[in-house]
Write a structure and sequence with these properties.
Its main location: membrane. With 733 residues, this protein is an alpha/beta fold. It is built from 22 helices and 18 strands. The protein is elongated, with a radius of gyration of 42 Å.
Length: 733
């Protein structure tokens, strides 16, 4: 019943308990009947709370012959793995470090129960079952001396932390809601491998996968993501059958592929490369998945160097764990409680190729006795090498992740009604490789535990900049209204009458609108405010410039009309002046109407991931329309400036053309400087730049054209006479 046992294995791996650390690479697709029911070797230390751990300390199992009439002999695990033994010791190191310091979990002592999965599914299942059925587990009716110490276990009983499971399938929170890990998903690794293949221009690549969810899943993602032809796609059998390996190598030769990706665990990769050595397959560029890219299979140059030289792959991030090396080298058969460690004897005998005199049932004594003078410090191997701490660091982080979860649980007294499942939110601060990225409109908190909404930024009426600009705008409107009052009160005086009072009042009205339109740029952007601000700005400024243009033409033509027989002025009477203003303004109205219909300005959110703020602004909608609006204003301003410059020396004691020239120079200078400043200003400061340009140019027009007139009307009334205005001017431009 392979499917049934596959599901049982899958469930057992999730039910290991809240503190279980597992190294399984995913759900196995086939599983044999479990031989025997004898207890497995376990390394155990008591504590208030126990962490369970599964490590593949051996690379394979010698399967016993099953007669189904007698109790099967104990399963024999072979090929001791120094690398995974270091992982196991790292777990113990982290637990003892937490207990010794006592800051993270005061008044709580962590213990551990560690089993060897022997790199096989059924052995991992047996270990899982023993963890679930161990004495003190309230789920089996065993003795519970202190019910409170299991309080959090009841709450977290379906949560699992893995230090080595990278299978992308485990990211499915619907199927694996309680699965957490300190290992990145294969999605990231596969994406990097695909980029590597494309970088070197390899177009004919073979793929070989291990017969498990890790290998099959990763290889399938690679094939789908690559988007190119795959030379072959083969599976390494778990039983390591030589005929199957020989068939794979034969297919590699016939495919003529020179680049092969091996997406498999270390044990499966070693099985494949043993076959490659036997068959003499050379000249292959091997690509390594992270499971074996830094494994012992590459650190044995005498055996695999000639076939794996030049292999490429990606590895888990390397880190340094202070104090770990001394902890690793402390092991010795004579150290206290060494007799309680069932894994020390096979490790020691494998390292020094000697026998400690402990006869293992069913195994002959083939090694010389150990002298007792052996020291781990005198041997260099992958166990004592701490220069490449990658998975070991994942184990270290996994233990600390659990400890932080327990601290959170203890702080909140962990009521059963609330591995508290949302503890994953609190793992962001543990330097995990696979972190949850906040949505664009959110930002990580200072301690990297939760995603909080970003601060929304726009030119507001409540901030200092907004208040300042609003005050300047209202003050400008007030000054314009004062000028209107002065001109109205003295409307019959020569200064007011001599300068076309109708156009002057229309110009003052348009200037008031220019000052007020700047207020539409302040406040939270909306669809209506975005459409209003740009169109109101464009139309009011064209109206203003059109009035000035009309005044300039009148001044210029008035002196032309003084020549004998000239009939020029009849073409530039009040009606014609109004027609010029209306025509010029109508063109801008048409441009703005088309703009609003085709591509209107709309509010937009800028959410840079590296910034803690969301910027609200108005997007122009159509850059062409915005350029036309500005360009048309600039065109009228340039015409105005040219005509005023031509009329600057006309005989007039109060030469308005001279004042218009000054005002247009200021206007053009402001808007020429505006364009680069607007483009380069970030966020809300682009809006500030536009408002500043509107206010500066408006003040320039108001000050240059109307301030000298108000000065004469209020402070020099003796000059506000027809005689003075008609006298010969005494100064020149």
């Amino acid at each position: 019943y392979p499917t049934i046992y596959s599901k049982i294995l899958h469930l057992s791996l999730l039910w290991l308990g809240v503190f279980t650390l597992t190294s399984c690479q995913g759900e196995a697709e086939q599983c044999e009947m479990i031989p025997g029911s004898m207890s497995l070797p376990v390394l155990e230390k008591k504590g208030d709370i126990t962490l369970g751990g599964l490590f593949s300390l051996h690379d394979m199992v010698i399967e016993p012959s099953l007669s189904f009439t007698l109790t099967p002999p104990p399963t024999q695990c072979t090929r001791f793995n120094f690398r995974t033994f270091r992982w196991m010791q790292t777990m113990i190191f982290a637990i003892e470090e937490i207990n010794r310091e006592g800051k993270l979990l005061p008044n709580i002592t962590l213990g551990y129960k560690i089993y060897d999965s022997c790199s096989t599914p059924h052995q991992a299942l047996k270990a899982a079952m023993e963890l679930m059925g161990s004495k003190g587990d309230p789920g089996t009716g065993g003795d519970v001396q202190d019910e409170e110490k299991w309080h959090c276990i009841l709450t977290f009983s379906s949560v699992q932390v893995s230090y080595f499971s990278s299978c992308a399938c485990l990211s499915d929170k619907k199927e694996f809601p309680g699965f957490l890990r300190t290992m990145p998903s294969d999605f990231f690794q596969v994406d990097a491998l695909v980029q590597l293949v494309k970088h070197f221009g390899w177009t004919w690549v073979g793929v070989i996968a291990g017969d498990d969810a890790y290998g099959r899943g990763g290889a399938n993602i690679f094939v789908r993501t690559l988007g190119a032809c795959v030379a072959l796609h083969e599976i390494i059998p778990k039983n390591g059958a030589q005929t199957a390996i020989k068939t794979i190598i034969s297919k590699i030769r016939s495919s003529k592929a020179r680049v092969i990706l091996v997406f498999a665990v270390e044990q499966d990769a070693e099985t494949l490369f043993d076959g490659v050595l036997r068959e003499g397959l050379m000249g292959i560029q091997w690509l390594a998945s992270e499971a074996w890219s830094t494994a012992a299979v590459l650190s044995t140059p005498k055996k695999y160097h000639r076939i794996l030289q030049g292999s490429m792959g990606f590895a888990i991030r390397r880190a340094h764990i202070p104090g770990l090396q001394n902890f690793l080298l402390r092991l010795h058969p004579s150290y206290p409680d060494a007799h309680k460690d069932p894994f020390l004897t096979p490790f020691w005998e494998e390292v020094f190729q000697c026998s400690l005199g402990v006869q293992v049932e069913g195994q002959e004594q083939r090694k010389a006795p150990c002298s007792g003078e052996e020291e781990l410090g005198s041997v260099k191997n992958i166990y004592s090498d701490v220069s490449q701490l990658r998975i070991s660091y994942n184990v270290y982080k996994a233990v600390y992740a659990i400890a932080h979860a327990l601290k959170f649980c203890a702080d909140s007294r962990c009521p059963v009604s609330v591995h508290c499942i949302s503890i994953s939110l609190y793992l962001l601060s543990l330097d995990a490789i696979e972190c949850v990225r906040c949505l664009p409109e959110f930002w990580s908190s200072a301690d990297r535990t939760v995603c909080i909404p970003k601060k929304v930024e726009f030119l507001s009426f409540s901030d200092t900049m907004g208040i300042t600009l609003m005050a300047i705008s209202l003050f400008g409107s007030f000054c314009t209204c004062v000028v209107v009052f002065i001109f109205t009160w003295h409307r019959n005086t020569p200064v007011v009458r001599a300068n076309n009072s109708d156009l002057s009042f229309l110009l003052l009205f348009s200037l008031t609108l220019c000052f007020l339109c700047s207020l539409t740029f302040i406040g939270r952007p909306s669809e209506w405010s975005c459409m209003l601000r740009h169109t109101a700005f464009g139309i009011t400024f064209v109206l203003c410039i059109s009035c000035i243009l009309g005044k300039t033409i009148v001044v210029l033509m008035a002196f032309r009309a003084t020549l004998p027989g000239s009939t020029v002025m009849k073409w530039f009477g009040p009606a014609q002046q109004k027609a010029i203003i209306a025509s010029c303004t109508l063109i801008q109205v048409i441009i703005c109407t088309v703009w609003l219909v085709v591509a209107p300005p709309t509010p937009r959110q800028l959410m840079p991931r590296e910034s803690a703020i969301v910027i609200l602004l108005c997007e122009e909608g159509s850059a062409v329309a915005f350029a036309l609006v500005l360009g048309y204003i600039g065109l009228l301003a340039c015409i105005c400036l040219l005509l005023a410059f031509l009329a600057r020396k006309l005989p007039d004691n109060f030469n308005e053309a001279r004042l218009i020239t000054f005002s247009m120079l200021i206007f053009c200078a402001v808007w020429v400087a505006f364009v680069p400043a607007y483009i380069s200003s970030p966020g809300k400061y682009s809006t500030v730049t536009e408002v500043f340009a509107i206010l500066a140019s408006s003040y320039g027009l108001l000050g240059c054209i109307f301030a000298p007139k108000c000065y004469i009307i209020l402070l020099r009334p003796e000059k506000n006479t027809r005689k003075h205005l008609m006298s010969k001017p005494t100064d020149k431009f």
